[in-house]
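One-letter codes give the sequence; each number marks local geometry. A record appears below:


***
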Amino acid sequence: MAWEPYLGIIKLKRVFKMEKFWSHWLWPFLTAIIGFFFAFLVLRQYFKRKKAHQLAWFFGLLLYAIAALMEAYSEFFHSWSHGLYRIYYVLAATLVGFLGLGTVYLIFKRKLWGNLFLIYLILLLIVFLIQSFSVPLIEKNLIPGITVGGKAMPDSVRVFSFFFTIPGTFFLLGGAIYSVILFAAKKEYAYRMWANVLIALGTIIIATAGGMARAGKTAGLYPAEMIGSALLLWGFLKAGTLKKGAKVIVEKSKK
């Protein structure tokens, strides 16, 4: 029919508007605010307790916040410079690895395992960074105003991200699940169980959206990053400190 082409045009316009909405600079900007605030809280905790896992988490969260800020910058100014995009991709691809490193230091009593994983991450990061600046970008996919993710990087570079995200997600998510099981049997620590449930959910959302984006499927990346980071922060705040659990135990013993 004569009006069918017009329906096609209307559908294309709607898809474009939705893409613009999900790619709006405000999503990653809010993610950056959450990330920097989260990193500040963890760094403040590190200065009080001097634990290796807190320093690793701080570094991972700092990378997360900076990468989100770069996303917001590119969407706001409708510009992706080659250098900025290369740095962004490396930060976004490696941050989960360092968050997982924090969990390794936290769970394993011997620092040896954390140190070995740290060496692995640093060596891989160096090679990844060199490779990212050694290959030409896919210009047609470096489109301002549209979520790029990993689409502008060739496959020879994209493959590096999996060596960070897979072990990082495994340790981060595995640590959260382990903590849920550990605290589930202790009513006085129920708040820590639910805190780790939130952390697990946040990890799943961020890892799934980030992995898909680095593979070239970027739909919903920015909102997923914001929701995931908010859940992680909520879990962190809910976990509090062991003093809270000790207070519950003392109050319980007085009854």
